[in-house]
C-alpha cells in the first residue's frame, strides 16, 4: 500500500476516488479485508450551515447525510466504542471504526444523538466542560461572528496583521481563516488581547453570552446521552491550543475537565481529544499530562488512520468528515484508508 500512497498525491485523490466509485472497485473492496486497524472519524456540528452566524466550517454533515454515513460505517466496518479499544490495540483484526464528535454543540444532542440511536452505532462525544458550565461563544465562532459583522472593509495594520486584514463582503471566509490562523499561533493570554482588539477594530464588540444560550448541550443532555451509551470524553475546559500554554495551565485544563466530567457523570472519562489537534498543538509534555490525569487514550486531528504497526495511545490519528466531502471520497476511505484517510 505504500506504493499506492506514493503514486497518489493529494490533488489526484478525488479523481482516483471517482474512478474507484465509477468502476465498482469500491464496492468490490468493501467486503474484502483490504485493510485492518482503526479508522477514527471526527464530526463537529450537524445540521444546515446556511443560517449559522458563526463558523460554517464547523459543520460536518446534515442529519440526513450523517445517517447515510453511519449506515455505511455499520455495513462495511466494525464500529467500536472506546471500551472496545483495549482489544483493538491488543491486535484484534478487523476494519475498526470509531465515530467521534468534538466540542459538545447542542446539535449533537438534537440531531446526531437521535440518528446514532436509530442506526444503532456507538460514538464518543468529546466535551469542553467550560462551554457547558458557562455557555459562551467559542473563540473560533466568535472570530467568525466578528468578521461577518464587521463595520469596516478591512482591519488596520496591527501587531496581529502585518498587512491588515481585508474582509470581502461577498465571502468573509478567507478573512476568518486568516484570523483563526493568527489565533492558533498566540501564546498564553495574548489570545484575550487579540479577541478584544479584533472586536474593537471591527466595530462589533465582543459576543455576549446571550448568543450562546442554545449553542451547547446542558449537563442534563450530556447525562442523557451518556446513560444511552454514548461515551463521553475530555476536551479541556476552555479549549485552548495546549502547546501554546505553560504546563501549569495545561494541567488545569486537562485535569480540571476530567474532574468536572467525573463529578457530573459519576464516571471518569477514558478518552481525551486535543483541541484543534494539529501536530504542533500538543507536545510530549501534553501527552504526559493526559496520561497522568488518568486517560487511557488521546486523539489528534490531522488525518490518517491507525494501522496498529506502532500505535501511540496518546496520539491516535483521526480524520475529519467535512461538509463538502464527496460520497466517492467517503466510500474510498472505507475501502482504502491507507490512501484516503490521509487528510
Ligand atoms: Zn474542539
Low-confidence stretches: 1-7
Q: Number of domains in the coordinates?
A: 2
CATH topology of the largest domain: TIM Barrel
Number of strands: 12
Q: Specify the CATH homologous superfamily of the largest domain.
A: Glycoside hydrolase/deacetylase
Number of helices: 15
Which strand-content bin applies to the residues? Answer: 5-15%
Helical amount: 40-55%
The gyration radius over C-alpha positions equals 20 Å
Shape: globular
Order of helices and strands: HHHEEEHEHEHEHHEEHHHEHEHEEHH
Calculate the terminal CA-CA distance, rounded to whole Å.
17 Å
CATH architecture of the largest domain: Alpha-Beta Barrel
Bound ligands, each once: zinc ion
CATH level 1 name of the largest domain = Alpha Beta
Biggest beta sheet attributes:
6 strands, parallel
Average pLDDT reading: 92
Q: Return the structural class.
A: alpha/beta
